[in-house]
């Protein structure tokens, strides 16, 4: 079992490096997730320095306003850290920045006939990653602004992504659904599954915090059931190392760190909220081993290693050929997972 002192040490090294890296490296679509991770770390470590780094990264964006045209893949994820920064600083520009992105999603983003966001028009595709890039921010903004319709929209996105992408045999999720062809990508990708598992409890928490759980009870139950079933299967596929294989049900694919960070974050949230249907005993063991595994992947310089790089869909050989290194989105999720674990231990 990993102890809180080890988690704190790992988080401090990771956060110090990430604060420097966010401001110095070449821009990447995952920087928004790295920025959000810094805000989690600031709360857990009770330090203002990560907030300062996040503010410095956001300042030129706030001055110019968000992109709200073209493929939203590259900028939609900025809404969530903008909202978290608003909660930390009360800077109204952060709230307006997030509102502009949410306005595009609600009123202008391309969708499938049943309402799922389409990230790469004109291709009519549903990607599992997109539920994380969109639904939690809509839910948080809906709660902050008292917009019940926006909260419901966030829940609807989780459900429609489930409907398009779930593998009925396992409860896991495919990477991409090709709507026109009524088919999907051929592999169960671990990091893609982790995006759903992170987003679902975040949306559920905002619905509950807004007092909307009773009104949205049927939709809440659909999300809870999907999450519990998914996580029970995820736990059964964990490697002895505490990591997961990049194609999650193929032990002949390599072990990968970002998915373990995502599943650690999701399992911690599920356990703390006593998710109905979750095998809690097995989940606690998997959670502890995942925290140990991701902590061990933080090197002496504070870099989170063992991360598969940007991954479009493909066949098994393609997933297994993706280069491994570091990536800002993975660092961000790792900071979130360690931060929530440390806060839980100290709470």
Q: How would you describe this protein?
A:
This protein is mainly alpha-helical and 347 residues long. The chain has one domain: Alpha/alpha barrel (Glycosyltransferase), CATH 1.50.10.10. It has helices at residues 4-24, 31-45, 49-64, 79-89, 92-107, 129-145, 148-165, 190-209, 217-236, 257-272, 280-296, 316-319, 328-346, and strands at 125-127, 176-178, 183-184, 244-245, 255-256, 307-308, 324-325. The chain has a three-stranded antiparallel sheet. A two-stranded antiparallel ribbon has the order 4-5. A hairpin with a 4-residue loop joins strand 2 and strand 3. Helix 2 runs parallel beside helix 4, helix 6 packs parallel to helix 8 (190-209) and helix 8 runs parallel beside helix 10 (257-272). It starts with a helix and ends with a helix.
Q: CATH class, please?
A: Mainly Alpha
Helix content: 55-70%
Question: Strand sequence of the main sheet, in spatial order?
Answer: 1-2-3
- CATH fold description: Glycosyltransferase
What's the rounded overall pLDDT mean? Answer: 96
Tell me about the largest β-sheet. Answer: 3 strands, antiparallel
Overall number of domains: 1
Q: Can you name the CATH architecture?
A: Alpha/alpha barrel
Class based on secondary structure composition and strand pairing: mainly alpha
Instruction: List how many beta strands DSSP finds.
Output: 7
Number of helices: 13
Give the terminus-to-terminus CA distance: 18 Å
SSE string, helix = H, strand = E?
HHHHHEHHEEHHEEHHEHEH
């Amino acid at each position: 079992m990993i102890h809180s002192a080890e988690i704190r040490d790992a988080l401090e090294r990771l956060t110090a490096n990430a604060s420097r890296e966010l401001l110095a490296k070449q821009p990447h679509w995952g920087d928004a997730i790295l920025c959000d991770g810094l805000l989690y770390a600031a709360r857990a470590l009770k330090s203002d320095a990560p907030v300062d780094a996040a503010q410095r990264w956001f300042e030129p964006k706030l001055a110019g306003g968000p992109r709200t045209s073209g493929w939203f893949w590259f900028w939609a994820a900025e809404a969530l850290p903008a909202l978290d920064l608003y909660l930390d600083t009360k800077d109204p520009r952060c709230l307006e920045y997030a509102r502009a992105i949410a306005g595009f999603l609600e009123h202008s983003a391309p969708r499938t006939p049943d309402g799922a966001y389409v990230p790469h028009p004109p291709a009519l595709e549903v990607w599992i990653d997109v539920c994380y890039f969109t639904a939690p921010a809509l839910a948080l903004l809906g709660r902050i602004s008292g917009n019940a319709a926006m909260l419901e929209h966030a829940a609807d996105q989780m459900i429609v992504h489930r409907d398009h992408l779930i593998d009925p045999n396992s409860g896991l999720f495919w990477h991409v659904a090709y709507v026109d062809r009524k088919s999907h990508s051929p592999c169960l990708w671990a990091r893609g599954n982790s995006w759903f598992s992170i987003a679902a409890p975040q949306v559920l928490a905002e619905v509950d915090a807004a007092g909307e759980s009773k009104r949205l009870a049927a939709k809440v139950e659909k999300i809870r059931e999907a999450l519990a079933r998914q996580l029970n299967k995820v736990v059964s596929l964990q490697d002895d190392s505490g990591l997961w294989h990049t194609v999650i049900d193929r032990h002949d694919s390599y072990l990968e760190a970002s998915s373990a960070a995502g599943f650690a974050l999701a399992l911690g949230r599920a356990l703390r909220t006593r998710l109905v249907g979750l095998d809690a005993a097995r989940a606690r063991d998997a959670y502890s081993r995942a925290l140990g595994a991701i902590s061990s992947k933080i090197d002496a310089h504070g870099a989170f290693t063992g991360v598969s790089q940007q991954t479009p869909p493909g066949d098994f050989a393609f997933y297994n050929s993706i280069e491994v290194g570091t990536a800002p989105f993975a660092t961000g999720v790792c900071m979130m997972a360690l931060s929530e674990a440390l806060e839980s231990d100290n709470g």
